[in-house]
User: Fold this.
Amino acid sequence: MKISLSDHFTYKKLFKFTLPSILMMIFTSIYGVVDGFFVSNYVGESAFVAVNLIMPFLMILATVGFMFGTGGSALVSKTMGEGKDDKARRIFSLLVYFSAGVGVILAVIAFIFMRHIASLIGAEGQTLDYCVSYARIIVCALPFFVMQMEFQSFTIVAEKPGLGFAITVSAGVANMILDALLMGAFNMGIVGAALATAVSQMIGGLAPFIYYLRKNTSRLKLGKPEWNGKALIRTCTNGASEFVGNISMSMVSMLYNFQLLRYAGESGVAAYGALMYVNMIFIAIFAGYTVGTSPIISYHYGAGNTAELKNLFRKGFVVMIVVGTSMTVLALTLSSFLSSLFMGYDADMMRFTRRAIMIYSFSFPFCGIAFLGSGFFTALNNGFVSAAISFLRTLVFQIASVMLLPIIFDIDGIWASMVVTEFMACTLSIIFFIAKRRQYNYF
Assistant:
């Protein structure tokens, strides 16, 4: 049975509609983990440290795709809810072409200045060379990665969530196979890892681009764009929360690396890298649910259906609490196994990483509500509130926590900083939900 954005959503229908988005995000995280696994076990700790040092910067570049995807999908969905499908398709075409152009410009600038950038974030000697070799190959595929991130949101708007999942799986499988071949069989080291990732990003961006460019059965199609400066501004403003959030997380990751180098040396950075790979998989569930439900919320907001907004808000709150609590239990149970995936070659490092995972895992119940807050207000086209939650969560709460807690608790304070951060972000989200309830009538 086909599910439409205009439907009433029970838990069963909500689960069925968002499952492809959740699996898509999980699978994206898993093949990122596989990348880290191969680098750590086939190239060595220095290369693994290099990838984790430069990765935050690469993710800053990719945030353009998140911004245009989340902000644009909310605008396009709202426009569809108002019954203006032709206008929605014109906005969609403009956003895709414009964001790809921005990706090209960023890729050229990053390629030229990569050595200086890697040096600024603390890379030295062989680690610096690894950073530059890896990142310069990756940025060559940046325009495709921007489109991949963008299309992950738009496939939901097009009522084709399965398409996004299928493309992500294809790109992920290609990455895994190429990792095994280039690093395992052909011994190409970190260059092989970069090539594998770049090719997968090209698949992830080109496949949906070709699909929407041709005649298709979805609600969206790429055609001749019509300049609409107002739509671009609204997209960027509304997607600012994801843009700010992802940039902030990447900047904070650099700060984490700086603090870990100070308190534990390169071993701390390696442990943090393993922790972030594990975190990516768990957080992907929150991100996938948010991406999957955002166009539904935007559609019903545009259609003025407050009864369904209340339904989606109530169910979202329950889902995030249940899933977040389950994640903590699962992370505590699997902490030894998860740490051994990356640090199995060193018993001390494995114990070090296991403790980090156990402390960090208590952040998940609060994290889900923070994701719901930012995502819900983005879907309501309230970029200001959404950006405020993301900005305070990542740049204020997290920076303050990671700078202050290690003074009291040493290295454990770094791992606990995210628990404090997510608790404060959760509290802030609840405050905004209460403050804006009469404006949007979601409860």
